[in-house]
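DM from R.C. (forwarded with permission)

"hey, sorry to bug you on a friday — could you get me a structure for this? deadline for the figure draft is monday and I only need the backbone to look sensible"
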Amino acid sequence: MLRKHAIILLLSMALLPASAQQTYHLDIKKSKVLWDTRKTMGGHYGYLLFKSGSLEYTAGGEPKNGTFSLNMNTMHSTDHADAARNKKVDEELKKEGFFSVGRYPEATMVVEEITRVGQSTNFKVTGILTIKGISNPIEFMAAIIKKNDIISAKANTTIDRIKWKIDMQPKREAWDFFSAVKNTVVTDEIAVGLNLIFTAD
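My reply, with the result:
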């Protein structure tokens, strides 16, 4: 009988950390991705909205991993005062030579590991970013602050447009001199900023 109680106690202790883990859900109305192509594709900037997202916390209260889905159809430029001009930019960026949104309406980010830097609120985030069906590893620093049941996360990083074939033409042609020149006169990095809010419910 004593042995049976001991086994039950050990099983309960083993299950406790798993049950104490917490999932926080992204508030898609308050969260967005800021993008800036001023050094790459014509000097535009704007934002993207999320379709969904979640962040896992360990039983010890540390962020562990997460998954995110971006709605590429929400791509919206804000560099022009005129709404019609912004809409024209949005339509251009959604075309095949850029983000191919018609074929790939969703981009995803799978966060595989989050590591705190010392005792600070800064974390190294590593994972896999998929755009246009192309997956590449990504790593960046983020400031993550937990206050009661609300978590805020902010980060600034860059992505290499060439790795995801965001290269201004659906198919490179050797004879297409002007498109080739256009690709060589811009840098390959797109600036990306994250403003995220998570809640426990």
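R.C.: lifesaver. The first helix runs from residue 2 to 20.
me: no worries. Residues 17 and 126 are 24 Å apart (CA to CA).
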